[in-house]
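Problem 12. The chain below contains 439 residues. Write out its predicted structure in token notation.
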Amino acid sequence: MTFNQLGLSETLLKTIAEQGYTTPTPVQEQAIPLILAGKDVLAGAQTGTGKTASFTLPLLQKLTETFNPQQTPRRIRALILVPTRELAAQVYESVQTYGALSPLHAELVVGGASIGQQTRQLRRGCDIVIATTGRLIDHINQRVVNLGNVEYLVLDEADRMLDMGFLPDIKQIMTLLPKQRQTVLFSATVPNGVKALAAQLLNNPVEVAVAKQNATAENVSELIYGIGKEYKRELISYLIGSNNWKQVLVFVRTKHGADRLEKQLIEDGIRTVALHGDKTQGARNKALEYFKTGKVQVLVATDVASRGLDIDDLPHVINFDLPQVAEDYIHRIGRTGRAGASGSAISLVCPEDAYLLVEIEKLLKRQIPRIADTGYEPVSLKVIDAPKKNAPHKDTGKKDFRHTKKPVKADNAKRGAGKPSKPTDSKRGTGKPSKSRTR
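Solution.
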């Protein structure tokens, strides 16, 4: 099938062709005709499947067909809600690209940017708003935004929105929307919470599923390195340096951990930048730009980056820390292996996090391959006493997990540069991490 067979306008087909696309992805093939036909849609589609164009293309066509140039100021006719600023920016870019030849005007409404500037732009009027829920509610409370004319609602990455606690915001926004509207809900996974939300928002929806639920892309190779916590930084530097990897997305659990690892990798001579929620929007945009253009090799990120990052041919993802929520493992490694490309996903798992690995493999219904020889003393990833479900693991002073053996300490004669914890190492800044593995 080609885009010409989906019922899209000649203007949109011209724009699509200019972008170099000829064949729709499976989710585009299924969703676009349904949305054009006015159906409510519940779509389960993993990242990297072309889902953004699946709703932006038909949305632009329907809005353009009924566009009234005499309507001034313009009213908000379409609302697209997303969980993160990065994903909002990606959707906004898609709307701008495919809508370049249309008369429509879109506004990006996210936190971390000037609320005053957004207010002025919204008061001038627009047709489409792409927003994160918190900043949109700020504008609603200030009576800047009127959602009474919304004809089309899109919720993108609905599962992530629920995970991040945005359900109260969504419900508040829903009370301000007309009941007569077309609603489209996209989600990488469709757990019970998403099904319940869809039942409240959608009217006789048509379900679209292009991949097995809770499945990772087949073209992504996954590996587990069982290793003591104190050697993670050392191993990651070795993997990046010895393999000369040019573009690696590294996930950590906390903002502080992201900043710390950024400094450590820079000390190891690896060009690195951190991305997390405490960064200003300008700093976040700059970090992404540096990473995409190759000015840095490594982007160290919290889960704020597990959705919405659209990076062509990202070859490597490393979980420095496993995610607390098993589904986030799928979202994280979904940053690689996009659009049919191959990719690798490596997870460094210490005994303290063994219970998280159990939950991930239970979700996947399979075991992720282990690296038998990590170059360090073997550790046990058998769970002895996992934390209570839905409660974060805390260090209470009691050991929940144990090493099978005492970790091997670095031997300066064998490791050449000395212990990685010392930034005064003369090898630092050379672009070559300390060779701390025992091969």
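Discussion. The longest helix spans residues 51-65. Students who got a different answer should revisit the alignment rule from Section 12.3.
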